[in-house]
Amino acid sequence: MSQVGEPLDELPLPPYVTAEDVDFAVRAIAVHAPEQWPTGPLCRNDHAPHPCRLHRWGQRVLAQRGLTATEITALVAHYRATAVRR
Prior knowledge:
The protein is mostly helical. It has helices at residues 19-31, 53-64, 69-85; strands spanning 34-37, 40-43. The protein has one domain (19-85). The protein contains three helices and two strands, in the order H-E-E-H-H. The protein has a two-stranded antiparallel sheet. The longest helix is centred in the C-terminal third of the chain and has 17 residues, at 69-85.
């Protein structure tokens, strides 16, 4: 069920943002990053117009958790740096 004022095509937010939700959100933002195409920026993962639904969902989850844009950028950069070593 969507929250009041939330567009129907958006993924629903969890009622309470847990540490696991934060991990999933950071991964969604990192994986669904923009890639430049002649038609404009597209999602690197699913080639939907950027930002795609999962990228927007990740941003909304982290914002609901109270993180700033700078903190989100730092978390995604840290995720990318550690994902290379996995």
